[in-house]
Amino acid sequence: MLKLTGLTFAAGVFPLRGFGSFKNAVRQTDWRTMQKSAFDPERFSWAISWPGQVSRYDLIYYSPPMDAMQGIPLGNGDVGVLFWCEESKIIAAVNKSDLWDDAPFTEFHNWDKKEEDYNTTLRHACRIVIDFKLPIFSTLYLTDFQARLSISDGVLTMGSSSPFGKVTFKAFVDFNTGLLSYDLKTEFTEALAVEVGVERFGSRTFSHWYSQINRDASIGTAGTNATVDDAGIYIHQKLATADFTVAGKVLTGSAVYRREHSRRATIVLPSQAKTETGLVFLVSDATNESNLEMAKKSLDKVQSVNAFQDANREAWRTIWTRSLMDYGDDYLTNLWYLTMFYSIASQRGKYPGRFNNGIWAWSRDVQNWNHYFHWNQQQIYWPLNAAGHHDLVEPYLNFRFDSLQHARDYARKHFKIDGAFVSDVTDRRGYNSSGEQENHTPIAEIALDFWRQYRFTGDKQFLKEKALPYMLDASRFFVTIFVKESDGLYHAREGTGYEGWIKLKDGLTELTYVKALIQATLDALKIAGKTIPEATTWKELILNLAPMPLVPAGDQSVASEQGKFKLLRGNNKNMTVATDQIVAAGWGIKEKKWLTVYHPADDAKFQDFNLLDGIFPTVASAPVFPSGLIGLSTKKQNPALFESLKTTALLYPQGVTGWDTQPIVLARLGLSEAVAATLARYPERWQIYCNGWGHWGMENEIVKDAEWFFRTNQVSDVSDPGKKFPFPMWPFRHMSMEGMAVFATTLNECLLQSHEDIIRIAPAFAGDRSARFMLHAVGGFKVSAQINSGTVQWVCIKSLSGNPCRLQLPWPSADLYIGKKSYMHKVEDGIALFDTKINDVFTIVPKGVPIADIFYGNETAVPNETARLHASGKAKIGLPRMF
Where is the DUF5703 domain positioned along the sequence (predicted)? Predict the structure, then answer.
């Protein structure tokens, strides 16, 4: 019997093999039918056993991941390692967040043919290939297999049995140091020499693989040198402006280090049937110093990984216990936890992991799209503050702040104004692509990201030193888009809706973001105790701003019925709404009319709506999200506008791409039934890989990436763009983190909203379902609650900053306690208002319910042991036995 991190493997004996739901004490006692809970208000913690609280959402494979896109990812936020199997091998693609190869030019053009494959790009570190020389992972010969990604501590365990023998394997990337550790055990029927190869074959980036490529195959292949000595193996890579080194050695057992050639070195384990070997690998930071020698010294210091293991477990536990999610649906909750794991594992480095593949690029140096695309990149961070992961947002904001001077220089050079401009496409240094100047919104959206970070953390030093300077430069640029016309109102000049190309006047995105940005900047100035001369002009602008454009949806989309209106198209067909008015994207300058994002299809038998090509699909959602300008408070403050946004959200198609904000918008508007239906379908539409990874692409197209091995596309050679030729797509498959983040944000928003400085519990949670959570709220609050059969049982709030609290009561009246003592509070229009001190814990229950009825004691939760199949049958988490 071989013990492997709590899992026992014996030839032919493995636990549950198929799809299913986890079985544990939670489900046996069924908290969903109980009024009491496992939440302890005195300690402000969920008394659920560790690590079961998180490991019940582990990723379980009962068949080997035979492809990189089925792979099992590890990471500490800076170093990322993706594991998969190929017949006789375990392959690990190793990446690091700072291995950037910089272009010799600054400003660039994303589609410039001369620049194709010469842009600033992130390079991979290496591949580590363990070759057992026997087809022990082939389904022809497997008798048993199990792999587990333990998300509670970021550890991969794997066991395989075949007629040729058994292998057990354990790996983790240390949370604090990025050190990659392997434990390897074999028990074969005959002696053989296992080889652990470390190789690096650089390549072209292929950022536009789907349309144009550079056929010069030598690009990216230079500067690699593999060496060995008595202490280990090394691959040193020269980049344009820095170098890095991969180093590895055997910690336990014996081995021979052998240089194969300039791009590969091998650790050869002794020829024997049974082996027990420990190996470690490290990737140096990218520096201009002699990092080869530094890497050798760092590797020499590692004599054992025992000390790393304890610290690694504790680091993961600390970060996980900031929040808890149980949406009442095991599959959706599992996806939320995997999304959080991938964010933690990819967003803690010097540079943020990109929206495409995170830090798990698998096909050499291929980097689909290659750059930081603003719309896509920002989405990774949307769910993180509510989950308490403010630190994961910091690398992204640091990247944006560090490149602020480039944004200022660009605004002066190209727009002849003060302030700062950020293109939708930038490289890691912050230089803009010069082909996207008509999209004005990225700088405003990024500034509001800084503002959101402050509102959650209350960090005034961050506000004064980073957030406010960025917001001021964004505001100074953004107000120049507006001009006061003869009607006395400020109108937006020519621009596009997000990434679109149709030129609009009074574009919805620009009207939305100038108001949201200026309001936030004026608030930030007040908090920081600063004044600026422009403030008076800015206030006048937003007080006299052109109104948000509204137009009738048209009688093909909405029918009038006895003073109300019925939707005739879309997923919510036949639903009654209060108005037929919807928001327009803006006034088409060429078209000379108000344009909407979608319009009725010519043949409704086949399609409900057509997208107006040239206007970005999410423009109509901008006032609600991510701007936060419109929310549930608008329902009282401006009911006509609220109802128009509601009709827009319900009428338009839901989630036309993985990065569509529509599910979040439905939650922000409290449309619980619509958002529940959207979430129920989400996995089958956007989660196309069994490890929980998602995709951005158009529905029905994205599946081709996962299933069509022989798929080709017609592309052009940049040296002869007039000719097209077929090009294989399989080597360029990728995952996208945007859809995963939209999904996780939607779950958060269903259970807790606070963006309007009011804490709302379950504002978009549908029907008689049950859930429980611990999430973070704007103002520095940590909030826990339990919902049973559609009824909020209790709310518990911890004040982290000592700010006044405003809670929308989920019942007609309530009792509020601090500890076990009754606490006085005001109630205005259903909102409880009370002062707080740092670390105060408040328990709120329905009037007359004793607080002793909340906590019943500890709850036992056990690790997941199954692969999960979504109810649609079209998505899964993990792999069942398939041999």
Answer: 63-225
